[in-house]
Amino acid sequence: MAAACTLAESGVEVLVLDEQPAPGGQVYREVEKVHEQRPEDLAALGTQYRAGLELVRRFRHSGAGYLPRTSVWEITAASEPELAIGTLHDGAAQMLYPRHIILATGAMERPTPFPGWTLPGVMTVGAAQTLLKTSGLMPAGRIVLAGTGPLLYLYANQLLTAGTRPEAILDTRPATSMGALASLLPALAVQPGALLRGLGWMRAVRGSIPVSSRVTALKALGDERVASVSYESAGQSHELQAELLLVHDGVIPNTWLAMAAGIQHHFDQRQACWVPDVRGVGRTSRES
Length: 288
Description:
single chain, alpha/beta, FAD/NAD(P)-binding domain, three-stranded antiparallel β-sheet, 10 helices, 31% helix, 26% strand
């Protein structure tokens, strides 16, 4: 949205293709709807989410074209005579012929299988947060959160603000080496506020919810659905009763469209995922 605003406000003709029904992306999903129809949920979703409304309003007034509920199924190969995008909107397929394409496919939760992960009652934290944003749905019963990453603590903080207290957080993050911490310094120098927000979420959560650190051997147990969660921490085995296990193991770039477009990728050892080769300000290996 920010790129579309900047270009449109500078007089460039822009069209945004969005899979979602309204602007906002993953972070600000349904922010207009929540503001208008469920303002009581804004407190739980936090100040960062509320701030997205200003960006969405700017986008609405920027002059950029907008096609919601639109899927992109093809970007023609570099060997083709003309750059084109294959789209599906309202059940109709269409080819568009832009001069340039900006990919903003965002991130997706890292899928990490573990024993019992397919049992009913096991969901990702991202899916649970999507239900909160789109429908105002809050989980009930005995809730256990497990995994690592900022979203784990953000969602736990949102639950607490809404009056729902999980039974426990099982943090699977291993001990952090000095080298790993040093690798984060460039990013923290650019966005120190992100670190402060994350520390604030962790502080609020740890003061209200039992947190087990360096968790390993996570298992969801049950016959027809999850009934308990077993794990190891500090050299001991534990088991918790649970009706809902929400898991999260960080996010990775959503690369399927970039790969389909023939953009070169490499495997990032630190993030343990494939990422597009990018140089300068977002320039990829594909020139046209």
